[in-house]
Amino acid sequence: MRLATRANGTPDGELVVVSPDAARCLPAGEKWPSLLAAIGMWSVAEHDLRTLATRLDAGEGEALDHATLRAPLPRSWQWLDGSAFQTHADLMQVAFGTDPIEHDKPLMYQGLSDRFYGPSDPVPFRSEADGIDFEGEFGVIVDAVPMGTCAADAMAHIRLVVQINDWSLRALAVPEMKTGFGWIHAKPACSMAPFAASPDELGDGWQDGRVCLDLVIDWNGERFGAANGREMSFGFHELVAHAAATRDLVAGTIIGSGTVASSDYAHVGSSCISERRAIEIIADGVPSTQFMHFGDVCRMEALSAGGNAVFGAIEQTVRQKL
Amino acid sequence: MRLATRANGTPDGELVVVSPDAARCLPAGEKWPSLLAAIGMWSVAEHDLRTLATRLDAGEGEALDHATLRAPLPRSWQWLDGSAFQTHADLMQVAFGTDPIEHDKPLMYQGLSDRFYGPSDPVPFRSEADGIDFEGEFGVIVDAVPMGTCAADAMAHIRLVVQINDWSLRALAVPEMKTGFGWIHAKPACSMAPFAASPDELGDGWQDGRVCLDLVIDWNGERFGAANGREMSFGFHELVAHAAATRDLVAGTIIGSGTVASSDYAHVGSSCISERRAIEIIADGVPSTQFMHFGDVCRMEALSAGGNAVFGAIEQTVRQKL
User: What is d(CA B88, CA B108) in angstroms, rounded to the nearest whole number?
Assistant: First the structure.
């Protein structure tokens, strides 16, 4: 089952169920006006939504206008982003010139959750000098998770999988990181691909709490990376359990994987510019790739072996904030 | 004007305006069902709410049952907590055994905002071994603040002032801080005192974006501290501007001061246990005060020179999570 959110003038948008070919949809209706409402009562909502999915499979539905699609969750109560790809973490130490991070638990920070840009929204930033970078990620949306839930039990709370661009301002990241307080300036709002998919919708692409799909990223029309999500050091169920260790997780909490990375980065590329710069530093002593300029376009879509983009595509232009 | 939120079975509760003696109230009504709804259209809502306040001043209203009061904002889209008292920051380095933090900007992290405990809610934690600590703070609630708003302009966006207990788990804080990602485990949900006050309600207690009131804290019935909020290195307007440097702030964003502290801590005490332990380390080489036990009670209220508790009191018992 795949879900999307159509713009309807409300902050949370209108929840729709999407057909397998993404050409048609059925509105979830007044009972489930938004995904945020549905995830709060998922055990009831899922049944209703899957009934609509069955009707779509049978050919029902109205035409889906992709131009109206927002982030599946245009806002939520909590966004906790992990950094679960060790290859990325290792390369970021090179990029940032920082010491290795000592940790025996997943790395995770709390980020801005009151706004997720839709898949084709222009993204405003104040200055190119801030080091504008994309970060291709996967994420999961959970229903309510009680404090102390273990990883094995956390798996069942993963209700939907999403694809995220975690926009980052690299020039601001290291000073904030060195305070130990995490990031405020370096982490503005993220973007989401248009479709949230139930884990079963991913088929073999969902294994051991990992999204085993290539995250294909193009920057200004040129292939930048196609790392697969399978190399997470911790599965999403382990990230959920980590997040819930000392807090109840509110329904609608989004947990991120951190930048998708492959140990075979020489062949598949990277999912953020900063990581490519680290690879250049290792090879040449200095980075040669610059961060983004206003007007640049970043496109991301996760492809199955059959070429199906289960989450749809994010394709956005970076703009100067007016 | 003072506002409160009564329990009514909804996640956001029912917004009421409170009489000067806190004995009466008038519901804000269907137009402004909750504070989160009102803060989203504050320029309109404020007029309506102040009209109710005038009627309360004239003696109207129904009896206010304090037992029904929740946090003024039982949940919000964003909670950004500063650490604006240098005395506290200096002492926490002693408590944590960490190096001084190099920074020329306010310190700030993003915390859990999907739940703020009410003033008399019991507060559940998993283990005493986590180092359960209270942190007495002040906070402000803003309406929508555009990205790039300067400190002078930010002042007008401060619509309400609140009093917060930022519960902390000290045994978990340092390892998280050393990752640079900020705190997930060490910062569970906070609590709020029952009344949110417009800045003018504080009179001389609101100066240069600072809450110049003594924050009186009792632990198990014994006076623990009464530090005044005036010694913030940055005013709240500067914290708001800092928060908004690279992001729009959603209406209802809560910005915290960090633990209220006084350079005269020898006489006025502290607003958290960890700070007292640091003072003991400086004096005796080792800390003698232990963190909280299940069943302990923490009471906090901010008193004016005349003895008025503008935000009301937080009085909560720490419990083991079942």
Answer: 14
Closest CA to A83 of A71, A74, A92: A92
CB atoms within 10 A of CB B200: 8
Which amino acid, A263?
S
Nearest chain B residue to A252 by CA: give it: B114
Contact B182 A185 (CB under 8 A): no
Average pLDDT, chain A: 97
- Do the Cβ atoms of A192 and A115 come closer than 8 Å? no
Tokens representing A137 are 């990620």
Q: Output the six-digit token pair for B103.
A: 């920074």
Where does residue B308 rank: exposed (0-12), middle (13-18), buried (19+ CB within 10 A)?
Answer: middle
Report the amino acid identity of residue B168. S
Q: From the centroid of its chain, how far is CA B298?
A: 14
Task: Locate B98 and state its tokens.
Answer: 């960490």
The maximal CA–CA distance of chain B, rounded, in angstroms, is 58
Instruction: Tell me the shortest Cα–Cα distance from A296 to chain B, in angstroms.
Output: 19
Residue A52 and residue A32: Cα distance in Å, rounded?
A: 12
CB B163 within 8 A of CB B138: yes
- Gap between the Cα atoms of A132 and A274, Å rounded: 10
Partner B contacted by A88 (CB < 8 A): no
* Non-local CB neighbours of A3 within 8 Å, separated by 6+ positions: A15, A16, A17, A18, A28, A35, A49, A72, A160, A195, A196, A197
How confident is the model over B94-131, as pLDDT tens digits?
A: 888 888 887 889 999 999 999 999 999 999 999 999 99
- CA atoms lying within 13 Å on the CB side of residue B260: 29
C-alpha count within 13 angstroms, C-beta hemisphere, residue B215:
34
Instruction: Report the distance separating Cα B71 and Cα B315, nearest Å.
Output: 12
Q: How far apart are CA A300 and CA B254, in angstroms?
A: 33
Nearest residue on chain A to B110, judged by CA atoms?
A110
SS (H, E, C) chain B: CEEEEECCCCCCCEEEEECCCCCEEEECCCCCCCHHHHHCCHHHHHHHHHHHHHHHHCCCCEECCHHHECCCCCCCCCEEEECCCHHHHHHHHHHHCCCCCCCCCCCEEEECCCCEECCCCCEEECCHHHCEECCEEEEEEECCECCCCCHHHHHHHEEEEEEEECCEEHHHHHHHHHHCECCCCCCCCEEECCCEECHHHHHHHEECCEECCEEEEEECCEEEEEEEHHHCCCCHHHHHHHHCCCCCECCCCEEECCCCCCCCHHHHECCCHHHHHHHHHHHHCCCCCCCCCCCCEEEEEEECCCCCECCCCEEEEEEECC
Window B:113-132, CB contacts with A under 8 Å: 113-115, 124-126, 130
Summarize pLDDT for B135-170 with one digit per residue, the tens: 999 999 999 999 999 999 999 999 999 999 999 999
A100: contact with B, CB 8 A cutoff: no
Q: How far apart are CA B278 and CA B90, in angstroms?
A: 9
Give pTM, 2 decimals: 0.97
Report the alpha-carbon distance of residue B167 to residue B154 in Å, rounded. 27
d(CA A254, CA A137): 12
Instruction: Tell me the ipTM for this assembly.
Output: 0.97
Structure tokens at A24: 């048609």
